[in-house]
Fold:
Amino acid sequence: MKTNITLKLDRDLLRKVRVLAAERDTSVSALLANQLEQVVRERDSYEKAKRRAIARMKRAANLGYNPPTSRDEFYER
Structure:
């Protein structure tokens, strides 16, 4: 189900958007809907990739590295 919204745009921007929509043989509404869908898809893809990367880091093997606990320990040779 689709729902209508009201959108306020600057006159010059709206004129340019109408021209762009006409060049793409579509409506302003369809043009904006497609762009918003793309933004949401990209965000969702990023979030999924981020969750996968975090899960991999949590499962990663412990390589036995213990960071220094003090400055003196850090500079010890």
Observations:
- Residues 11-62 form one domain.
- Helices lie at 11-23, 28-59, 71-75.
